[in-house]
Structures are given as C-alpha cells and as structure tokens.
Amino acid sequence: MKRAFSSILCGAVLVTMLTACSAGTATQPSDQSSGSESAAQMELQFWNPFTGDDGRYMTEIVDAFNKENAGSIHVTTQTLTSDEYYTKLPIVEASGTGIPDAAVIHIDRLPYYAAKGLIQPMDDPIKEAGLSGSDFIPATWDAGVQSDGKRYSIPLDTHPYLMFYNKKMLKELGYTEADLNNLTGDKFIEMCKKATTGTNFGVGLYWPGMSSAWYSLLGQMGGTLVDPAAPGKAAFDTSEGVAAAKWFKDLLDQGLTNKPGSDHLPLFKQGKSLFAMDGIWSSTGMNDVKGLDWGEMFLPVVGQQGKVWANSHNLTIMTQPNMDPAKVKADMKFIKYLSDHSIAWAEGGQVPARLDVLKDPAFTKLPWSFAASQLDWFYYTPTTTTSGNYIDAVNAALVDYYNGKTKTADEAMAKAAKNGEATAAQTLAGLGG
Amino acid sequence: MRKTTERLKPYLFILPHYLFFVVFFVIPAVSAIYISFCRWDFVSAPVFVGWQNYQKILLDQGGYFYEQFWNAFTNSFFYVIASVPLLVGVPLLLAVMLHRLHRFGGFFQSVFYFPYLLSVATVVLTWRWLLDRSFGMVNQVLGIDVGWTIDQPYFWIAVLVMSVWWGLGGNLVIYLAGMAGIPRDLYEAAELDGANAAGKLLHVTLPGLRNQLLYTTVMTTIASFNIYGQPLMLANSKTPSDDKNVLIILIQQLAFGTSQIAGMASAIAVVLGVAVMAVSVLQFRFAREAR
Fold this sequence. Notes:
The structure holds two protein chains of two kinds. Chain A contains 18 helices and 13 strands. By secondary structure, chain A is an alpha/beta fold. The radius of gyration of chain A is 24 Å and the shape is globular. Chain B is mainly alpha-helical. Chain B is built from 13 helices and two strands, in the order H-E-E-H-H-H-H-H-H-H-H-H-H-H-H. Chain B has a two-stranded antiparallel ribbon. The interface between A and B is large, with 43 and 37 residues.
C-alpha cells in the first residue's frame, strides 16, 4: 500500500516538473476567446521584449487591433526578456520554424539583422500603407536607412537619455524652472555646487554604465562614434571623446555627484540630489515615490549643440522561408495600426515617432512631452553593424576611468578604441569574410 | 529468456535519466567542442577555423581576447583558492558544533541551511542594497564609507562573504549526515586513549568524513570555477571592469553580447572545462594517496 502510494506520488511530481519546465517564456495570447475561427482568418505572430511595466500598454493596443479585425487577422504576442530576446530571435530564424511575422527590433540592431537577411525590406509596403518619412521624426526615420539604401522598418518610438530634477529642491535653492531653459554646462555646474551640502549633492549618475551619458556629450561636441564607411575603425578616440569622458570625471572630482558604489536613482527619489541622469524609461518609476515633486528635461548643453543619446523601437517584418504576400500585407496593416495608435504606447514612457501623435493632447500632458519641441536633440548611434561593439568597449573603459583605475581620459578612450576594434573585427568577419 | 530480462532491468531503470543526460549534456558538450573550432554567430552556418580561437585566447599576447581570457581566468582561479577552504571548512566547524547541540541542533541547522534555498538573484540583489555606499545598512551601521560594489579588495570580500553565507548550507547537511554515520564507540575509544575535543575531531571525525570531504571539495571547486551571478549582479553593469570579470561572465559576453562570437566563447568554455577536470583529478589523486 505504502509502495503504491509513494510511486503514484513520484509519478505526480515527475509530471508536474515536466509540465512546469515548459513554462519558460511568458506567452501572452492577446485574445483568449478565439472561438470563431473563420476560414480566412490570418494568424500573425508578434514578438516583443516588453516584459517591464510598459508591456501592458502594448498588450492593450494589440487587443484592440484583434477586436477590430476579428475574423480576418488575429495577432498572438510573445514577450521575452530583453536578454533572451536578441539571442532567440536569430536562432528561431535559423531554425526555420516558428519564426514571428512581425517583431520589434531596436534601431541599433537593425544593421546586423538587415545584413543577415533576417528582416524584409519595407520600402514598398510602407508606400502602399500610405506612410512616408514626413510622418516621422526626421532623425529617427533617417537612422533606420541601412547601408544598401533600403528601409527595413518603421520606427514606433524613441527613448532618449535625459535628466530628472527635483522641483522642491530647485525652489529651495532659489531657482525657478525658467533657469532650466537652455541650460548651459557652466550654469549646470553652478547649480550643482549650490545643491551640494552635507548629505545632498548636485547630480546622480549611473557610474557602472556611463556610455549613454558620454555618447550624448560626444554628439554635443560634434564627435562621431564610428564612420559607417570604415566600420572596423573607432572614430571616437579624438579630443571630443576625451572631453566628453573628462567632463563627468570633473563633476566626480569636485564632489558634485553620488560616489561610485551607490545607486543614483534611489538617492534621487529620496530627495538627496537636485538632478539625476538616466533614461526616459525611469520616468514612470518616479511616480511611485510619494511626495517627490519631479520634472524631466534633456541634458545641459556642454558642447556646441544640444544632443542626447537615443534608441528607438522599430517594427519589422521577419523573413520567412516562404514569404506570403497576403501575410506581408496583413503584417503591414498590423504595423500601421500600432504606429497610428502609438499614443497608448507613449504613455508607458516613450516618445512616439509619429509627428501627428506628438501633437495629440494625451501626449502633451505627459512629463516627457517637452521632447516634442526638441526633436533635433535625438542622437542615434551610427547605422552600422559595429556600433554596439564600440559602445560596449567605451562602457567598460569608462567604468575603470571613473573608479580611478585608468588615470586619464586619453588612456580610457585609447583602450576603448583598441578593444572595440578587436570585437568589431569579429563581427565583420562573421558578416563579410 | 528470464535471465536476459533480469540483466536488462538495471539498464531500463537508468534509461530515462540516461536519455536526459545524453540530450542535455553529451550532445551539447560535443557540439560545443566542435563549435570551439569554428567561427559562428548563431545565425549563419559555422565556419571551420581550426585552432585559431585557441591561438587567440592562449597565445596571442597583447591581443584583446588573450588579455580578457587570462584576466578572467586569474580572477576565477583566485576566487577558487579563496572560497573553497571557506566553503569546505566553515560548514565543517558548524557541523561539529551542531552535532553536540542535541536540543537546538535542528533549529540552528534550519537557520544555517535557509540561505541555500534562495536563488542567486535574491541573494545578490539583497546584499547589493545592504552594501550600497550611501544608504546601505552595512556602511551605516559600521559608520564607514566603502564602495563595496566598486573598489577592491572590498568587492571580492563582499562576494566571498555573500557566497559563503549562501552556500554553506549545502555542505553543512552533507557533513551532518556523514557524522551521524560515525559509530559512537570510536569516540569512546578515543576518549579512553586520552583525546580531547581537538583530538577527537582530528582522529575520529575527519577520517570518518573522508568521503564527504572529498565530495564537497571537488563539487565546491567546480562551482567556484563556474561562479557567475554574484560578481555580475553585484557590479551592476553589463560590462564589469576587468578586476571583476570571471570566466563564465566573459563566455556569456562573447557569446550573447552585441556581436555573437560563439566560437571563441566555446573555446574558452572548453579550456575552463579541461582546467576544472584537471583540478578534480588532482584532488582525487591526493585523496587516494592520503589514505
């Protein structure tokens, strides 16, 4: 009796474990009630990496699309964490089955996917859908044109690096929000100095990952990361790159920032700093803190022109072993729908790429709506397959520079260039050679 | 006929696990060795390049991959040397002490074992908040200003303390189980011969735990060579600085980073595997000779 019972128990545990193992990635079917499956209903697979809080905004838009198109097109969404997303996407392509029809891809990854033929050129579908470059933010649209002159995506949104400020502390120091207009680097430093007393300090920085902040300043000073015509050579180890790196080190040395080893966002939320630099994606988290009177703006202008690092989610059509023109049409219909309704997506913490959506009253009441009047600030990494190699190399080199291991900014940039070129060589070898 | 079914039975029993073993270990391991001789980015077909990857990481002095590999290897190696004695010795001492506590032994065993049940993310994220330079409890309570997640040697001290706190439960229960199997008359005999507590430990407990000690030493060494989550999440950066990089992090960066250099990553993984096997063989040899 006991033996029979324990063997049943073992069997039950085994079965539970086996079924639990398959629940690895979160599959969120957008429409559970697919009772009516008319013969002509087209099934589309849509992949995205929106596992954070903002994921639900996307789910709402997809649900609305499914409702409007019930019977003709049905979209199922698959959401993966961004780490495994870019690993799984090329692998599923290589496997030949289960390839999604439409997928979100960051703009800086497009060159690689286009070069490998993993995504489809979209110039014609875009024209047929009635969209064109004049509908989108120019910088964002232009950054999506690949080296062969073709477009492989349309931008859904853009998410820049920016700066949060504490309104209460601003007032206490005797400033008004008007002082933040056209903020120059010098005025910024002056404000930080005033804010640094005892436990408070001027600006919080994310020391373990300063590449976005650095890249913003590189753009402001007129520097470039890499020349797409020579992707194997770093172009940032110049006076601009050095100056951009050094500017933040000077802030650290003058004691105007949080010390490396402390988390800058919690400190800002606790009201300990006047400013905090981070990405727009941290905006929605600011509302979680009761009593924090906050605002956001772009970085101070340290160089000749205002620029901030930005990335962009782009919508693409993935390459299938057998491309079906009817499916491509349905994909484009879905993609256009997402673009038309991107105001709902913007509320999750994005700047919509569509110019008409930027004018939507629902957007103007968001804290990041200021970006709509500063569209020329968005500064993307150059459209080439090796940009990511250089950004990673700079990120690593800056960590050592800001914690004192590397003594000068010149050394840091030289090291970043050398290491970036080594990994870039591997990327290029995998593509061309 | 009956004899053949009798002989087949053991194989049938291990068949399910053996299938898992082949599918999830043998096939991937053989593939990894093959990939280490190729250049591959997961998308296109692997391109055979012979010994090039191994050359780049082991011999190409001054090259990026050479420097990264040897840097990560040194870090992993020193971490093994520091952590294995602690993870083998501390639970042993605790086990000896707990063995004598008849009343509260069970309670304290649970207390020491509990962290072992936590996932690595839980452990590191909790400790990272405790170790935050500005508002972390450690700095506040001790009244110091130490960058635990940035400066050396504090970073590795933090990783060691965290890892020992987390991992000692596993070895602890192994030792306790082993000690329960040591006959009491051996202790009594030792007492009659005039042994004190230290003597009993050295001459009865340790020899009695010989198998368990060998097992925990080998397994802990392998686990320490494979350390990944703690330095990565404590450094809180997708590109940890050189002094914090370890082999598994390097392998993951190369294979799944911006440019997917799977061939080089596999080569590093193969070298790591060979190194770990060599160390384990040495440990077994040493244990056998010490008999």
